[in-house]
Amino acid sequence: MGLFTRQIDVQLRMRTLNLYSLLLWFIQPIVFSAVGMILSNAAGNPAPDLVYTVIGGGIMGMWSGLVFTSTYDIRSDRREGTLEIIVGSPTSLRKIEAIRTFANVAAGSISLIAAFLVAVLIYKFPLSQADLLSAVISLLVILFGLWCMGVFLANLMVWSRLSTSIVEFIEMPVALLAGFMYPIRILPAWMQEISSVFPIRWGLETLRTAIQGPALNQETLIKWAISIGISLIIYLLSRLLDRKVHDLIRVSGELSSI
Amino acid sequence: MEIQEGCVISPGRVNLLGEHVDYNEGVVLPAAIDRSVKIQFTRRKDRLVQLAALDLDHQCKFNLFDLDRKVDSNGNPLPSWALYPAGVLWMLQQRGYAVSGFNASYRSDIPIGAGLSSSAAVEVGFAVVCQVLGGWQIDRLTLARICQAAEINYAGVNCGLMDQFACASGVPDHLLMFDTRTYESRPIPLPQNTTLVIADSTIRRSLINSAYNDRRKDCDTAVKFYQTIYPQVNSLRDLSPAQFKAHAHHLPDEVWRHALHVVEEIERVERAIQYLDSGDAEQFGKLMFETHNSLRDLFEVSCRELDILVDLAHGFDGCLGARLTGAGFGGCTINLVRKDRVDEFIEFLKTAYQRETGLQANIFRTHPSRGASLKSSSAYRSSAASIPKVYAIDAHELSKTFVTRHGFWRRTVKSTVAVDKISFSVEKGELFGLLGPNGAGKTTTVKMLSTLLLPTSGTISILGKDIQRDTNEIRRHIGFTFGGARGLYGRLTAVENLRYFAELYALPPEATRRRIPELLEIVGLEGRGNDRVETFSSGMQQRLHLARALLHDPDLIFLDEPTVGIDPVGARELRTTIKQLIGHGKTILLTTHYMAEADELCDRIAIIKQGHIIAMDTPASLKKKISSDSIIEVKVEAANLPAVQNTLSRLDSLAAVSYSENNFVKGISITTPQPGAVIELLSPLLTQNVIQNLEVRNQTLEDVYISLIKGDIE
Fold first, then answer.
1. B315 touches chain A (CB under 8 A)
2. Are residues B237 and B269 in contact, defined by beta-carbon separation less than 8 angstroms?
3. Is A257 part of a structural domain of the chain?
4. Which of A202, B384, B456, B656 is 20 to 30 A from A23, alpha carbon to alpha carbon?
């Protein structure tokens, strides 16, 4: 527990509470939400779909924040020379990555909460119809999916410095494919197939449904199960790679390379 | 050859005559006895001393660097029994004698608290252990004085010099005439056909220290009084019994009686020596009885049981003399007995004493014996044959090749051999240096040893564990720092950094709370713990690195260029810290580019070049590699160079000359086995100011290093 709280503390103070992260979590959702509404108006919709525009913007902020922090953490450790010290300690890097990613996901949820507040307080989005229990479960499922993906990305970052560009490359495509800001059904069928491998997609669908009305039905349960299942597969993949990655970095000697 | 282990036997002592005169500058007549303390010792590589008092079933471990604090290795106060050996080690160090770490167990058959100087035997015994391990020479008087100083200043017992001197300087079958004023001594044979018998009353002294101190005070009071009458008096020894008695009525009653004993005892010893020299055992014996009476009636340090023992002995026909020995108030009597009546005497005394007191006396014969000495020794540790040696580091045929790939479509692969089949071992407690130019493979080696890199081939054992199989276990027991300011979180404070890394090493919260201020003090950052690390200078960050590496109290520490970028004062402080770590029993592997630093710190050095170890030895032995020639450094203005060269051409094969230069001044380096001849040749040029400066120096580690790296020597 000591390691957990200490790591969270370090994570928040070193990585989270800085201007760039605040931009990611607050400004970015606002920008995305604004763009969403402009596009909605341009498409001739009488009123913007707040579920996709505002809340989608919040999810977007969470995702970007996660991609940034998960990859930045390791890059930063490399640059500060602390990666070697962490790897050389008896605590496994996997454990540290897991706690860090938890901190990142928890901090990222601020973005979603901010988006909700904007939707409710500014746009008067009615929550009276919302299925709060299903919404909370959906949110937790999303957070779990994000955590698993974050751990996977962090692991990838330890492996090689070159993976930075790969990770940065996937930020927008995943956001687009997972339907953060629009319904998946508008995508071509083949793209929908691809998007189904992202656990966030399934959680998002149930979250949106739950915000609009009763959602606790078989379809929702299946989607939660799919999301959790894919998340677990991603996590297990990280675990399988973990040892390999650890050995690889001890072979290549890139721990201290910037 | 360096002694690794052995056994020292240090005898107790018995004083035949001259009781309580040693602190009044009198002459005493002690003898070392055949009851002794036996100390088995084994050298350690570190600066720790581990003691086992087998009779007490107690153990104690302390650090030679921490002796001032009188604490064990856990920071707890030393137990009282350990103050005696520890005090000797402390005093030896204070006097500049090299004291190495060791393990020792000891057992004694000297009755404790019986007035037979069991404490002095321990002190002298450990002084001899240190002497044996340190390889230095010391005369027995100096050794005894060191032990006395240790008992007074460290154990806090105000004692005279007789006990330690007798334990250190005993001669078989002889008493020692020891003048505590002039420190002169000579052995005097024990009278023929006599044997010494010690009778331990089994009464143990109580309040002895306060009574002893009271009597010392009384003696001082008497001296001060007599100084007003006889200004030349410095001690009671300077007074004859007649002089003393003439004015004694001015003294308080108790002071008068106590001082009279001393004055008469000093005079008695003078007579006793004459009797001994003439072999008159009977007269000598009578003086022993007189002494007892004086100790009983005047000095008032006897007790009923001791008086009974002496009275019984007095009534035995074969006993020539008897008296209490030691400080009194209990303990033993010493008896001079005819050889042919010893068994009978012992039996008689045992029976009669039990009848009179109901106590069983411990009565035994004793022989004047040799002072403390090394009984047996070995240059090798006997355990080495049966137990495989566990090194802190054992690297065998260690290689590391880095493979880099370039290109996307047409991949090119490049292999770089950073370390090529190096083998070396580092013993526990050793400070091992790894030197070499940039890119030689030092850091790669350190990273392999510290589990951060996997070797391409070869094996590494760290503290007996395999680097690949027991990686996590090894990580718990090693610490490492890499040179430079990287490796800390700049936006966190020093304490926050240390707390975080403490968690990574799973330090319990209590240990973390205790260790952090301790370490900040050790590295000289006390008071800066709550400052952000980004505000620290390079030196401070480097010291914080060291604190971080020490958090979990590792046994083995890797220091990769720890003083790089640090100012000279900071570097010196860090070197002091490193020395202290060795004193705490740590093993250190150090890499550095500073040769003086390596020379100062390292027990052994390996020089690595292009991934190969090209030399490995102690700094002293490495310096011998390059020859014992001196180097004469000459500075000369460019215009004067031809004149100097002309002179140097006459050196023939006497010296090797090399030149270096800058724009204005030429440097000439002359390596020669005969510096005197060269200086003589050059001195006219020096007086004519042709030579600006001339400096003679010995070969340094840097000279060796440069020669090895350049390939000038192998």
1. no
2. no
3. no
4. A202
> How many CA atoms within 13 Å lie on the side-chain side of B49?
30
Nearest residue to B600 (alpha-carbon basis) of B567, B632, B563: B563
Task: Identify the three-state secondary structure at position A39.
Answer: helix
Asked whether the beta carbons of residue B487 and residue A90 sit closer than 8 angstroms, the reply is no
DSSP assignments along B487-522, one per residue: SS-TTSBHHHHHHHHHHHTT--HHHHHHHHHHHHHH
B367-381 residues labelled b (16+ CB within 10 A) or e (exposed): ebbbbbbbeeeeeee
Residue A219, SS3 per DSSP = helix
Alpha helices in A81-180 (DSSP H): 82-87, 93-117, 132-159, 163-177
Task: Tell me how far apart the alpha carbons of residues B522 and B182 are, in angstroms, rounded to a whole number.
Answer: 46
Query: What 3-state class would DSSP assign to B531?
Result: coil
pTM over 0.80: no
Q: How far apart are CA B146 and CA B164, in angstroms?
A: 9
User: Which is the catalytic residue, given B66, B72, B163, B238?
Assistant: B163
* Nearest CB neighbour to B452, from listed A9, A90, A250: A250
Residue A257 reports pLDDT greater than 60: no
Residue B551 DSSP one-character state:
T
DSSP A120: I
- State the nearest Cα–Cα gap between A158 and chain B, in angstroms: 13
- CB B703 within 8 Å of CB B626: yes
Rounded Cα–Cα distance for residues A257 and B534 (Å): 21
pLDDT, tens digit (0-9, with 9 covering 90-100), for B76-114: 889 999 999 999 999 998 888 888 889 998 988 888 888
Mean per-residue pLDDT of chain B: 86
How many independent structural domains does chain A possess?
1
User: Inter-chain contact A6–B500, Cβ cutoff 8 Å?
Assistant: yes
**Domains along the sequence of chain B with CATH:** 5-187 (3.30.230.10), 208-366 (3.30.70.890), 393-623 (3.40.50.300), 629-698 (3.30.70.120)
Size of chain B in residues: 714
**Residue B163 among the catalytic residues:** yes
**What's the burial of B710, exposed, middle or buried (CB within 10 Å: 0-12/13-18/19+)?**
exposed
Query: Residue B402 and residue A252: Cβ atoms within 8 Å?
Result: yes
A158 in a structural domain: yes
Chain B contact present for A80, CB below 8 A:
yes
Alpha carbons B257 and B292: distance in angstroms, whole number: 14
Per-residue pLDDT of B479-536, as tens digits, reads: 998 876 678 888 889 999 999 899 888 888 888 888 899 889 888 888 898 999 989 8
Query: In Å, how far from its chain's centre is CA A226?
Result: 17
With bands split at pLDDT 50, 70 and 90, how would you rate the model's confidence at B384?
A: very low
d(CA B211, CA A138): 87
Tell me which chain A residues have a C-beta less than 8 angstroms from the C-beta of B504. Answer: 3, 85-86, 89-91, 96
Asked whether residue A258 is assigned to any structural domain, the reply reads no
